[in-house]
Structure formats: C-alpha cells, structure tokens
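As the work plan foresaw, the team has encoded backbone shapes as discrete tokens. One protein thus recorded appears below exactly as we store it.

:::
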Amino acid sequence: SIFKKLGKSLPVIISGTIADASGRILSGQTIEAFLYSIEHADPFAVGFNCALGAKDLVRHVETLSAISPFPLSVHPNAGLPDEMGHYNDTPEIMAAILGRCAKDGLVNIVGGCCGTTPAHIKAVAQALEGVLPRKPQPRRAVTTLAGLEPLVIGPDSPFVNIGERTNVTGSSKFASLVKNGDLDAAMDVARQQIENGASIIDVNMDESMLDSEKAMKEFLLRISSEPSVAAVPVMVDSSRWETLLAGVKCLQGKGIVNSISLKEGHDSFLEKALVLKHLGVAVIVMAFDEKGQADTEDRKFEICARSLKILMEEAGYDPWNVIFDPNIFAIGTGIEEHRSYGIDFINAVKRLKRSFPYCPVSGGLSNVSFAFRGNNAIREAINTVFLYHSIKAGLTLGIVNAGQLGMYADIPDDLLICIEDVIFNRRDDAADRLLAAAGSAQSINKTGDAKMEWREWPVEKRISYSLVNGIDRFIEKDAQDAVDKLITPMAVIDGPLMTGMNTVGELFGAGKMFLPQVIKSARVMKKAFGVLAPLLKSNNAGQSFQGTVVLATVKGDVHDIGKKIVDVVLQCNGFKVIDVGVMVPCADILDAAQKENADIIGLSGLITPSLEEMANIASEMERRKLPLPLLLGGATTSRKHTAVKIAPLYSGPVIHVADASRAAPVCQKLVNKQTRQAFTTSIRAEYDVIRTEYGKTNTASKLISYDKAVERRLRI
C-alpha cells in the first residue's frame, strides 16, 4: 500500500528472530509457519537476525533453506553477551561458521547484528569470496496455511477436518457462550474440536443479536493468547464483507476466508479478491453467481471454473490458494427438485478435481442431513456415508463436527442401502424409504448402554473392539485381565492390541475411518500402555540392552500412534528407545542420535508432507556422514517410495518397516554383527530391483510442441 502511494517499489527483506532453542520466532510460530504467513508479500529475501550467534542460528537457517523459494538472508549476533555485555564470537569464529553455511549452499545474503563490528563483516566477506549463492527452492504447487504450526494440503494429502462448532449459527452452546462474553469457555469449544482431529477451525459470528465484526475480532485476538488453539489455521467465516475483513486482519498466520462469490457480479467479486490477495489468505469460492446458488452438477462446475479464471487471470491468484465450495444441499427432503442434490455434488467434485487438480474442494458436511434435524442418529449416518463418497470423489477438506463422525463400516447394511439410494438417486421412493428407516435407526456409535453385548466377549476381542471403536471406558481393566490370562504383557501387545491397531490401519487406509476416530483409538492405546508399561519394565529389569533406537515423528506431523506402538514393541525386545517426540526438526533428531550414541534412527509420519521431510533427513544424514541405519514407517510410507525416492539420498541402510510387528526383527538383524551385512545387502538388492522396474514404467513421455499444447488447452 505504501509503495502504491509513493508510486515506486523497493526490494523488501523480511527477517524473523528466533526466540529460543525450539526454533520458533518471537510470536511462537515455527519457521515453516512463519514462511507461509509472509510468502504472499513476495519478498526479495527471507531470513533471520539477532537473538543468536552464528553457531546456534545455523540449524534454523538449514530449516528455512530447505523450504524457502526466496533468497535467504542471515544476520547473526557475534555470539552471546557475557555478564558485562561483551559478545564472545571473534571475527574469525563468525567468519568460519558463516563460510561453511555459504559453501553448503544455505545462504544468499550475509551480515551481522548485535555485537558485530566492521572487523566481523570484513572477515565474513573474505570467507565468502568466490562462493556461489544458494539456489532458492522451487515453489510447490500445494496449499499452505499456518497458525503457530504449518498445514500443507497437496493433491495426495488426507482429508482435512475443519471444526464447525466455533460457529454461532451451528452451535447453540458456542453462541450462548459468546453472547454472554464467556470467551474462556468458548475457547474450550475450539480446543475440543482440535483435540478431536480438526486441523482448521471455522469461526463464524453471524448472529442477529451480535455485533459480528466486534465479536469476530475479540475471539480471534483471544485465540492468539491460547497456543493450543492458535496452533491451527483459522477459517474466517461470514456473510458480511466487513466481518471477513476485520477477521483476516486479526490473523497472525495464513488462514482461509469463507467465502466470496459472483453473487453480486464480476466487479464486486474481483474487488474483494484483490483485497484478500493483498492480505495473504486462501479463499473459498462459493458456487453462487448472479442467477443464484448452483444446484446442478453443470452449474456448480461452470461457476467454479468461471471464478477461477477471473482469480487467476485478473487477480493473479495461484490455483492452490483457491478453494471451491460446490454447495452441499440437504438430501432426502422428499421434494422432487432435490432428488439429485447428493449425486450432483459428488459428480461436480470429480469434475473439478479432474480439471483443476491444484484447487482444493470443500463443503459444509452437516448441510447434507439437515432434513433430519432432531434425529442425531440418522444425521450421523447420513453425514458419514456422504463424507465417505465425497472423499472418494476428491473432496479435500470439509467443515465437520470432528467429535461426531461415525464409521462407514459400522452402519447397518439396510440403513446404508437406504442412504446411498438417496445420495445416488437410485430409486423413486428412496426418500420415503430413508424416512421410514430414520424412525427406527439406532446410533451407529456403539458406546451406548443399548449395545453392550460385546462386553460378554473374550477379553482379547474386547480389547480389539475398544481400540477400533475408540472406547476407553473399560480398557484399563481389560488390559489387566488380558495379562492375567495371557501371562505376559508382551503377549497382550502382540495379540489383541496389535490386532486392533492393524484393523484401525486397514479401515483408515480404505477411507472407512476418519482421522478423529484414529485419534480416539490412539487414546485407548495410550491407556492400555499405561497398564502394561510398568509390567514391561519389571520384566526387563536387570537385562542389558540389545541396542539404542532414536524414534521421532518428523517435522510437520503431529501423529504418533504408530510410533508409540513401535516404542513398546522394541522395549519389550530389549532395546533402549529414545522417543524425541512429534514435529521434530531434522537437526534435533540427528543431534539426539549422536548424543545417545544410537544404533538406529526410526522416523514416523502419517501425512504426505512427511515423506519430503524424511527425504530431507536422509540427505542431511549423508551430509553429516552418520553411519546409522534409517528406518521409515507410517501410513504414507511404502517400500516403493523408500526405494525410489529416499534410499538413493543416503549411502547407509534405508529400510521401510511396514508395521510395528516387524520393527523388532529388523532392528535385531541390524544390531547383530553376524546378520547385519547380509541383511542390508539383501535390502539394497531388493530396492535396486524396485528402482529398475519403476524406471521402466516411468520413462519420460515424448513431449508435444508448445503450439500443439496451446491448441489442446482447457477452455473455460
């Protein structure tokens, strides 16, 4: 805005200050979240200054260098001040460290901050003489969002839950709390949504008795002082432009605006889009134009395509910052004109994802079952089935009640048929049949007292059932009973616990179980481990360790259910396990391995971006020349990806471990001097074959000419 007033533009460098050893800037954001929050400004360079000396700043420079598409600047202090205020890094010390940084291709602009003198700058300049500058990373075609933590949504990302309960129009409890000024309790609603699996929270203050603009600002500013809520990105949701604008200006990170549309015509749409682009948010585009809301497949597609064309060609948007909402309408209303609402939405999602693969697609899930309000059991079933089919069609993210999603696999067959008949408009009497089924439907949540037959099953089956259904009410007693029956805690882990978790993994992989339910299963597993862990320690007392394994969930990923299982399994098999936690930066993992004199490093990840971080860690291990086996596991990992994308980056052993039950045998072979060489040689040979086969089937296609490509362009 200032440049526009001045009539000229100047290069802008954005520099953050690392606040502590965790690698967060002063506001609490991670480095990645900081980058995503400011990248819309297209700065000349991004980097760090102050707070730390060169030695301590290097690891954070490495993190930023691995992800930033901008030149990187660094201005460290001359070490840290002593009690007299004198900085302790000499020009020679600082120059040596920054010289190595430059030679490793990490920086573009180097200077000094507190405590540095002309002598420091001269020494640094001499150390950098003739060194090639860093090559910025290519921009990734993914949607990036940020609270205090980053969120990356790409074509292969799992479905993203947006918590719906911080919406005064959808939650009477939240509305009452906001009206009464009880923002602490209102914050608990947001916190609960996140704990139940929401990766984004939708905040809406559109209520007739509220000043929506004032309420939005107050709530979002309160979020900034609540780290557990501020961790996730915010979707600012309002039908009033002034409220949207006020909300966006209160966001620290990069959020989403819900929504803009062509309802008031091209000019109004473009004007708002330009303002929001300047403010650096992603936008939801509602399938709504001058003629009204789109209610057919063709209209949904046409309006979204028209909107994207305007945003890209006239407002300069990247497609990954445009999120389509093709309108979810209530199904099963009995009104003839509504019969195709379900299938039209699903087909529109398919078409949009085929034509515009980089644009996420979203929807408000609860709308689909609105015709059955008051019958929570049938609404839960309809929402679950519709979400299952929408995700299969390509739905990227959705506004849901993260704590009340059922499991597709649990819905009775007769009810499932009735619901799918309505969704896909398969028969004329589908709505009537669903209405009849709704009258007798029972909750698909099996935790109620009405369906307690499973408590009469053998203890092994009860434990597995509790895990799959996220029931923690009985797990501690059942775990103890299982030990009494099966004699050892290891038998309980290898038996019913592993059976239950394998089932969870299969259902999640098939899309029949959603992330909030996996989180509930993790809580059940944690309670079971609480009973078994003391018994395991008692059984292993006095035994020497076979080896030391450092485990971590990689940076950008907060999931650790599989890692916790591996931890217990390895301990049961005589290994010392150092679990360094979740969201762990590369440097922290490798530093821990060196500090603990580890024999093996194990990395876990549930989401697709974790694969990139695993590759980054493999590359850094090669750079550091760490002679340790690297084990990879988690829902997104695979033997093929490990062989093709990660193993070539590291000269040491890189091994994909398919599930927790295989972790101990793999580690035992690696720490045994008699078996290690043969085992790693066989893995390398196996991965060589995989890479060769992959190369045969993925050779570069012959490219057509540019003129031919222009002729074949998508016309919208």
